[in-house]
C-alpha cells in the first residue's frame, strides 16, 4: 500500500462514514443491474467503475450500499457523469459470473465485486480476462489484474462488544451472523472478545442465518433471542439485520419499559433503530467500503492499477470504527479506552471464534 493511498484514506474515511444514505433507490432496473445515464461526456469516457453486489443487494442498508454510495461519491468528486458508475445486482450466487461478464462487455475500467462470496467468481473471470482490472472487497484474489481490499473487522467488533457489555442489564447478549466464513468469523471473534474483556460471565448467544438477504430469518432469530432474555443484539448479516431491527422496534413499541438494543454493522444504522419513543441503535461498527473503493480507483487513475496487492485497513488507518450512537457516557469512555489500547498494541484480538 503506497504512502499516498494510506494518507488519503486516513483523511477521507471519517467524512464518508458519516455521509447520509443516498443509494437506496439508485440504479434499479428490471434486469437486476444498475441503470446508467445515456449522457456521453468526454470525462465519463476516461474512466468508469462497475460494481457487482453479493446476494444482499445494493439497498441492503449495509455492506453493498456502502460500496455503491462510495462509487457515486467517487464519480461526483471527479466531476464525472452518472454513467461513470454502474452496479449489477446479484440476487444469488448463480448470477455472479454472468454479472461480471456483462460488466466486462460494458467496458468498465475496474469492476469491483463487493463481498467475499464473489472471490471465486472473480478469480475465474479474471483468469480468462487478463487485460480487465478487477477489485474484490472482503476477499483475496492473487492475480495481477485484481486488487484486494480487506478490513480488520475484529477490531471494530471488539469495540462494540465492549459497548454491549457495558449496556446489557440481563447479562445476555446476542450475535446474529449472515453466513459462516472467514470474514464473519472475524466479527464474531472480535465481538465475543470485547464482551469478555468487560465481563467473562456474560452469555453470548451466537446464531447464523446462513443468508445475507433474508430479513425474515433475521427477525425470527431476534424474536427467539429477545424472548430468552437477550437485551442487546449485534448483527453482522447484511440485509438479514433489517429483520433484527424490525423485531426490536416492534417489541419496544409494544412494551416501551423493556429496553432492547441493536448494534448495526458496516455503516451507521441509526436510522433503522428509530421508533416512536426514541432510538434503539446502541452503536454501529463501521467499515469504509466506499472510501476504500474510491481511493483504489483514484490511485489507478493517477498512478496505475495496483494489481496483485492486498490492502488491509484497520483502526490505525481509520478503515474501521464505531459510532457513539446512543451509548451511555460510561460505555463510550470504556470504548475510547479500548480503542487506544488496540492502537497501542496492548490488546490482541482473535480473528477466529473459540470452538463452539
TrEMBL record:
Keywords per UniProt: Cell membrane, Lipoprotein, Membrane, Signal
Stretches assigned to the ABC transporter substrate-binding protein PnrA-like domain: 49-351
Localization per Swiss-Prot or TrEMBL: Cell membrane
Signal peptide, first to last residue: 1-19
Entry membrane topology: Lipid-anchor
CDD domains: PBP1_PrnA-like (cd06354)
Protein name (database record): BMP family protein
Organism this protein belongs to: Marinilactibacillus psychrotolerans
Amino acid at each position: 500500500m503506497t504512502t499516498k493511498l494510506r494518507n488519503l484514506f486516513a483523511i477521507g474515511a471519517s467524512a464518508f462514514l458519516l455521509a447520509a444514505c443516498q443509494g437506496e433507490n439508485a440504479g434499479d432496473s428490471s434486469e437486476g443491474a444498475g441503470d446508467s445515464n445515456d449522457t456521453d461526456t468526454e470525462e465519463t469516457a476516461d474512466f468508469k467503475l462497475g460494481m457487482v453486489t453479493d446476494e444482499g443487494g445494493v439497498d441492503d442498508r449495509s455492506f453493498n450500499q456502502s460500496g455503491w454510495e462510495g462509487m457515486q461519491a467517487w464519480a461526483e468528486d471527479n466531476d464525472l457523469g452518472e454513467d461513470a458508475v454502474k452496479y449489477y445486482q446479484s440476487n444469488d450466487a448463480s448470477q455472479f459470473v454472468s454479472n461480471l461478464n456483462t460488466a466486462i462487455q460494458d467496458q468498465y475500467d475496474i469492476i469491483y465485486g463487493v463481498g467475499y462470496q464473489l472471490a471465486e467468481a472473480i478469480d475465474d473471470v479474471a483468469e480468462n480476462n487478463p487485460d480487465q482490472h478487477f477489485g474484490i472487497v472482503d476477499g483475496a484474489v492473487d492475480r495481477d489484474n485484481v486488487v484486494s481490499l480487506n478490513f480488520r473487522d475484529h477490531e471494530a467488533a471488539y469495540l462494540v462488544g465492549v459497548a454491549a457489555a457495558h449496556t446489557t442489564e440481563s447479562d445476555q447478549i446476542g450475535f446474529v451472523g449472515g453466513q459462516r466464513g472467514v470474514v464473519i468469523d472475524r466479527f464474531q471473534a472480535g465481538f465475543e472478545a470485547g464482551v469478555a474483556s468487560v465481563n467473562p460471565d456474560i452469555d453470548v448467544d451466537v446464531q447464523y442465518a446462513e443468508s445475507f438477504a433474508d430479513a425474515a430469518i433475521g427477525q425470527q432469530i431476534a424474536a427467539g433471542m429477545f424472548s430468552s432474555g437477550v437485551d442487546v443484539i449485534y448483527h453482522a448479516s447484511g440485509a438479514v439485520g433489517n429483520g433484527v431491527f424490525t423485531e426490536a422496534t416492534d417489541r419496544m413499541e409494544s412494551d416501551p419499559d423493556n429496553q432492547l438494543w441493536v448494534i448495526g454493522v458496516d455503516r451507521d444504522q441509526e436510522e433503522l433503530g428509530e421508533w416512536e419513543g426514541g432510538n434503539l441503535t446502541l452503536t454501529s461498527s463501521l467499515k469504509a467500503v466506499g472510501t476504500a473503493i474510491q481511493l483504489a480507483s483514484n490511485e489507478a487513475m493517477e498512478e496505475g492499477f495496483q494489481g496483485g496487492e492486498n490492502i488491509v485497513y484497520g483502526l490505525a488507518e481509520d478503515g474501521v470504527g464505531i459510532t457513539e450512537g446512543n451509548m451511555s457516557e460510561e460505555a463510550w469512555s470504556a470504548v475510547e479506552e479500548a480503542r487506544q489500547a488496540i492502537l497501542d498494541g496492548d490488546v490482541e484480538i482473535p480473528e477466529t471464534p473459540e470452538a463452539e
